[in-house]
Amino acid sequence: MYEDLRYIKTEELIQQSLILLLKTHYSIEKITVKDICAHARIGRSTFYTHYLDKFDLFEKTIKVYTISFETLLSQRFLTNDISESIKIIVTELNKNRTEITTLIHSSFDQYDLEKNFQFILKKHCVRYVQRISKYKSFSLPIPFIVELYTANSMSVINYSLENETSDDIFSFLHKLFDNGLKYA
């Protein structure tokens, strides 16, 4: 991995160009390396210095946002207030709303940001439920609770990326999660 600031900035420029092209073309298949280079105002040789092809670029761009989401969840799921964690996560994700929404709507084969987010959410929900299950026994199967929390969290994330959110949504989420665990 290069640490040269010019190299890093060029990669960011190429990735941003891809995202903007995806926003208008909606599909990686319809975009060419020539399109990306023209939008980024770079030569093809510069593109190929950084990426093997447009699919390598797409994969690495998805990976950047996946790693960022993983880091964010690792920091936020340490608290016992899952609804407050989701609120903070949504606030952070909204800083890159356009990029994330575009990538979620532009999945291709195994390159699927939404599935990556779901996988990470599920992993952290499992850890969260396992941690609280030390203090509370559940009448419902833990895998069901995890699926429910993951689906609800992903729904809130998707909704917040597409719409404005209000404190009412997070208040409802808090009641849903808190009361859900009381009766689970």
List the helices and strands and how they pair.
Elements: H1 5-25, H2 33-40, H3 44-50, H4 54-76, H5 82-93, H6 97-104, H7 113-132, H8 142-162, H9 167-183
Helix pairs in contact: 1-2, 4-5, 4-7, 5-8, 5-9, 7-8, 8-9
Q: How would you summarize what this structure contains?
A:
α4 packs antiparallel against α5, α5 runs antiparallel to α9 and α8 packs antiparallel against α9.
Order of helices and strands: HHHHHHHHH
* Broad CATH class: Mainly Alpha
Count of individual beta strands: 0
Structural class: mainly alpha
Distance between the termini: 47 Å
Q: What is the second-level CATH architecture?
A: Orthogonal Bundle
Q: What value does the Rg take, in angstroms?
A: 19 Å
Low-confidence stretches: none
- CATH level-3 fold name: Tetracycline Repressor, domain 2
Q: Overview of this structure, please?
A:
The structure is a single chain. The protein is built from nine helices and no strands. It is mostly helical. It is elongated.
List keywords for this structure.
9 helices, single chain, Tetracycline Repressor, domain 2, 184 residues, mainly alpha
